[in-house]
Structure to design on (446 residues):
């Protein structure tokens, strides 16, 4: 009895593994067949649809039982008795096969396909039953290929480029750009030098010239601004009447011995004879302009004139008093700050806002697009865990390419707007400095 148990254990230890190895050898020793897709040629059929002709070859390798190894792959020129299954699908996992055929030929043409759809093809061995492997032929996004090869004009190419980035972000970015352009036009016209300093010529070309410091802002040159020169001429004469010196007495001794009452009488006389008439003439020019010089608009519509008029009216009110210069300076400074705020307006801030928001919107669109690309990769891997890198990388690269379009557009729109903002902010600062220069030149003559 004990001997029978020994025999049973012996059989289990030695005979069962031998049977398993024999079965494994039986499976491994089979000849192999390889179905290799060699071409996938696309064309347009008579109805204008996509047709793709798939061609393949068959290779086999023999198993040498004596050596226990396979030979090299050898092509079968005219295979007989082989049945192939040719399939086309819209996903790499072949879960949505839209067309399948069993045939014995080495090629097949699929008709009525869509140029705007991405396809995958495969050809598998149906019979005879043996070890086999087959290739996958990944389709091209024919819609993209056709659009790239198609000649486009500048406008149509731009619209295609913008559309590729997604209208969800492109429409708000273009609306913001339109707002920025309107803002730029408004501040561009308001900050013409000829709209701030009364111009010598009323012509449109002279008015829109960006810089002409001699012809538009200079007060000492004969070729300078006529309006400012005339105001400065009369105001300077009025400023001369504010100081009493030896030249107003017969000799220096009288000047030295003169009491305060005598000096005040001379100051009043100078104000009535010289100061007040010249101040009135300067104010008249500010209100009605220089005779013979035609301006595009009324003098008081120029911010520079309003600054001068505020100081002149303050001069007339304070006469030749010793504090008149300080009061004129204070009145001019307050008016300058008010006018500068009016020149900046909301447009300067609007340009800054557009220049700042556009790149951020582009970056936001890029982040959303990249997130979508990784989502597609995750979906592809979930549908086909064995997906090759050649299938994953195009999806990632294509998604990132589309996503970066929003960043490109955002920077293209935002950088010019930001540069425009800094340009006009600097221009306003220059106008502020020029007003101070003019006032200083005149008041220093007091």
């Amino acid at each position: 009895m004990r001997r029978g148990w020994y025999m049973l254990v012996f059989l289990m230890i030695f005979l069962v593994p031998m049977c398993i190895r024999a079965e494994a050898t039986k499976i491994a020793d089979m000849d192999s067949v390889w179905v290799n897709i060699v071409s996938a040629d696309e064309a347009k059929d008579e109805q204008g649809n996509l047709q793709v002709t798939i061609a393949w070859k068959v290779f086999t390798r023999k198993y040498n039982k004596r050596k226990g190894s396979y030979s090299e792959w050898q092509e079968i020129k005219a295979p007989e008795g082989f049945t192939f299954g040719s399939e086309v699908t819209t996903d790499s996992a072949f879960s949505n096969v839209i067309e399948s055929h069993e045939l014995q030929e080495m090629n097949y043409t699929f008709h009525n396909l869509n140029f705007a759809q991405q396809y995958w093809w495969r050809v598998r061995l149906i019979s005879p039953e043996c070890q086999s492997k087959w290739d996958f032929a990944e389709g091209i996004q024919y819609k993209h290929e056709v659009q790239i090869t198609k000649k486009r004009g500048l406008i149509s190419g731009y619209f295609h480029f913008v559309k590729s980035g997604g209208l969800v972000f492109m429409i708000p970015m273009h609306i913001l750009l339109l707002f920025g352009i309107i803002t730029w036009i408004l501040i561009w016209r308001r900050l013409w030098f000829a709209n701030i300093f009364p111009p010598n010529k009323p012509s449109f070309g002279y008015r829109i010239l960006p810089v002409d410091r001699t012809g538009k802002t200079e007060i000492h040159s004969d070729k300078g601004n006529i309006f400012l020169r005339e105001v400065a001429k009369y105001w300077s004469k009025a400023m001369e009447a504010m100081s009493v010196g030896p030249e107003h007495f017969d000799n220096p001794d009288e000047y030295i011995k003169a009491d305060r009452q005598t000096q005040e009488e001379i100051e009043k006389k100078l104000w009535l004879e010289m100061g007040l008439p010249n101040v009135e003439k300067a104010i008249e020019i500010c209100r009605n302009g220089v005779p013979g010089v035609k301006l595009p608009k009324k003098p008081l519509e120029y911010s520079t004139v309003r600054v001068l008029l505020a100081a002149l009216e303050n001069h007339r009110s304070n006469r030749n008093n010793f504090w008149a210069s300080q009061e004129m300076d204070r009145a001019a400074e307050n008016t300058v700050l008010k006018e500068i705020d009016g020149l900046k307006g909301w447009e300067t801030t609007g340009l800054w806002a557009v220049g700042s928001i556009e790149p951020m919107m582009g970056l936001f669109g890029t982040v959303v697009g990249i997130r979508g690309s990784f989502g597609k990769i995750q979906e592809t891997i979930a549908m086909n865990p064995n997906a090759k890198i050649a299938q994953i990388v195009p999806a990632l690269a294509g998604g990132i390419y589309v996503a970066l379009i929003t960043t490109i557009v955002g920077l293209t729109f935002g950088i010019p707007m930001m540069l425009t903002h800094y340009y006009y902010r600097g221009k306003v600062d220059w106008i502020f400095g020029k007003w101070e220069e003019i006032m200083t030149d005149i008041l220093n003559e007091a």
